[in-house]
Write a structure and sequence with these properties.
Elements lengths: L6 H9 L10 E2 L13 E8 L6 H17 L2 E4 L2 E11 L4 H13 L4 E3 L4 H13 L4 E3 L14 E3 L4 H14 L4 E7 L3 H16 L3 E8 L7 H10 L3 E3 L7 H10 L5 E4 L6 H7 L7 E4 L9 H16 L8 H20 L4 H8 L3 E4 L2 E4 L11 E7 L2 E8 L3
Helix pairs in contact: 2-11, 3-4, 5-6, 8-9, 11-12
Family: Belongs to the leucine-binding protein family.
Protein name: ABC transporter substrate-binding protein
Keywords: Signal
Length: 396
């Protein structure tokens, strides 16, 4: 939601499943709290990929949600305090599996769903949540189609039209006049973000000199990169998954391509640096959050506490933006439950429309489509084997 050199990434995502029993969460197939305590338990579904193409990023999002549950384990509903139980399902980065995972959450009678990492699986499951009248809050699913025509889907991240535009702004502000675009065929996130970048870059006077597509699970990109090299673009915009990114980066540099390589939020993952090595130097990306620039007191407290949590769980003490978004989606959910004063899912959906919180990634409220009112992105580069904050940017 693969060539031996990146197999370690998939194995890492699978090994991370060992943490799946932490923080009071349960899998969809397990038994829930029984007896009379059921009346004081409210379930929040966690709809994320922890395996498959996007398993690494999905797991980072899960960690943010689990930490939020640790910090805020209960919620007031009227005069009663309810324990919050996370019900986690793995949508396996696959649209068909996403439908099955969504149905499991419906059968578990969750009151809210959080997720998913990956717009395609979010879109695939959206109607199931709407039909069941269960509100869903996307963390990092940026494609506009996630919320379009779905009164039960919200999100705490910015959208791809915005993200594509700010990356085009960054490219032109830094002297790029020509660009090549590489997208994954059939992937809603990749194709959508590539299209929005193309429109924005062209509107700013830039020229798109090459557009290339690749198949899911493709590992050899030298043919399309050779085509791109012949056009000598100033920048290559290649929004793609964590597993694909290091292959594109390394093979481009092996062919002698010196153009800036850029992408969107999915590339903010340390495994890309690990697998691409020195070739990753100079890569540029847009993202939602930077720990060096806390937006408010909530963000400052999150940074300190989440780093401790990561250390306790033997995870790298770097805070990905998607973990912060996972935390914020949880905050939005419990605020809506409190404001609704009810466990009724439609009442929670109605309350979400007027929710306003100071989240880790900034102030969050929702527009008429359920999309977050956000107007700023963080631009980062890879320097010295680490992600380095460059600037913040908005739409011109």
């Amino acid at each position: 939601m693969k060539m031996k050199k990146v197999l370690a990434l998939t194995l890492s995502a699978c090994m991370s499943m060992g943490l799946m029993t932490g923080c009071g969460s349960s899998s969809a197939g397990s038994s829930s709290s029984g007896g009379s305590s059921d009346s004081k338990v409210i379930k929040i579904g966690v709809f994320e990929p922890t395996t498959g193409e996007n398993g690494g990023g999905g797991f980072q999002e899960v960690l943010g949600i689990r930490y939020a549950n640790k910090v805020h384990p209960t919620v007031k509903v009227g005069e009663d305090e309810y324990k919050i139980e996370l019900v986690e399902v793995d949508n396996k980065s696959d649209k068909t599996e996403a439908v099955n995972a969504a149905q499991k959450l419906v059968s578990e009678k969750v009151s809210v769903v959080l997720g998913s990492y990956g717009s395609g699986v979010s879109i695939a499951a959206g109607q199931i949540f709407a039909d069941a009248k269960i509100p869903a809050i996307g963390c990092s699913c940026t494609n506009p189609q996630v919320t379009q025509g779905n009164d039960f889907y919200f999100r705490v991240c910015f959208l791809d039209p915005f993200q594509g535009t700010v990356m085009a702004n960054y490219a032109t502000d830094n002297g790029a006049k020509t660009a090549a675009i590489i997208t994954q065929l059939g992937d809603d996130y990749s194709s959508g973000l590539g299209s929005f970048f193309k429109t924005a870059f062209s509107d700013l006077g830039g020229s798109i000199v090459s557009e290339e597509q690749f198949q899911t699970n493709q590992t050899d990109f030298k043919a399309i990169l050779t085509n791109i090299k012949a056009q000598n673009p100033d920048i290559i915009f290649a929004p793609s998954s964590i597993t694909t990114a290091p292959l594109i980066i390394k093979q481009a540099r092996e062919l002698g391509i010196t153009a800036t390589i850029a992408a969107g939020d999915t590339w903010e993952n340390s495994t890309i640096i690990e697998n691409a090595g020195d070739s990753a130097e100079g890569v540029v990306l847009s993202t939602f959050f930077d720990e060096a620039e806390p937006a408010n007191d909530e963000a400052a407290a999150f940074i300190e506490g989440f780093k401790t949590y990561l250390k306790e769980n033997k995870q790298e003490e770097i805070i990905p933006a998607v973990s912060a978004l996972g935390y914020d989606s949880y905050l939005a959910a419990i605020k809506a439950i409190e404001n609704a004063g009810s466990t009724d899912t439609t009442a929670i959906r109605d309350a979400l429309k007027d929710v306003s919180i100071d989240g880790v990634t900034g102030s969050i409220s929702f527009d008429e489509n359920g999309d977050a009112n956000k107007d700023m992105a963080f631009i980062k580069t890879i320097e010295g084997g680490k992600f380095k904050f460059l600037t913040t940017t908005t739409v011109k």
